[in-house]
Amino acid sequence: MNRYQLIGVVSAFGLVVLMACDLLQTKEFEPTGSAFSLNGNIRVLSITGNANVSPNGPFTLGITIASRSSGIETDVLPAGLLFKRQKTEMQHMLLLKPHTITTGTGSKTELLGCFCCNEHRPSPDEGDTFDLGPITDDPGLLQIVNLVRDKDISRGQDMWMVQHAVYLVTDSTGITQAYIDSINALPQVPGLAGY
């Protein structure tokens, strides 16, 4: 075996080892945290992927709700709330902005802008179903929740930058200082200037 063949064999072996290590280190993100208790007078009929666009996340879930009482019922879905996929091939979803839901006696669908949590799985389509999950206890995701709290993430490029930051936490080694600085540089939500 000549020198060039040996270099080729060593390079191929190194590539195989790196790919194997990458596969071995890939730990699937699973929702953990404290249970979220929805207002007991609100019944969740379904949570599904939705084709509409939201200013609070690149992917939209529709939560269809109805009141168990004879009146109007309200609750707030908090930032950091996770939505657990029902099919294992889909991504879990994350709410980064709080969302108030309100319903009367008839059913109503509220649209929630969400972020995906499993980069190597398909993003939700219409008809994909989810369950209310816990409020995340992941320190990296909580850091992103705090970073975007008062930030306007409605512009496409900003929203996708935040989505990549979520993937850095859920599917990689964690959010980098460059992403922290970029999120800190985003404009404030209109109406919050001066806070």
Descriptive report:
Strands 1-9-5-6-8-3-2 form a 7-stranded antiparallel sheet. 29% of the residues lie in helices and 27% in strands. It has one domain. A hairpin with a 7-residue loop joins strand 5 and strand 6 (93-94). With 195 residues, it is an alpha+beta fold. The chain contains 4 helices and 9 strands. The termini are far apart.
What's this model, at a glance?
This protein is α+β, with helices and mostly antiparallel strands and 195 residues long.
Features:
alpha+beta; 195 residues
The geometry reads as globular
* Average of the residue pLDDT scores: 87
Low-confidence stretches: 6-25
The major pleated sheet works out as: 7 strands, antiparallel
Helix content: 25-40%
Structural class: alpha+beta
Number of domains: 1
Please provide the count of β strands.
9
- Give the strand line-up of the largest sheet: 1-9-5-6-8-3-2
Count every helix, treating DSSP H or I runs of 4 or more residues as helices: 4
For the record, give the distance between the C-alpha atoms at the N and C termini, rounded to a whole number: 70 Å
Following the backbone from N to C, one meets helices and strands in this order, namely: HEEEEEEEEEHHH
Mind telling me the C-alpha Rg?
Answer: 20 Å
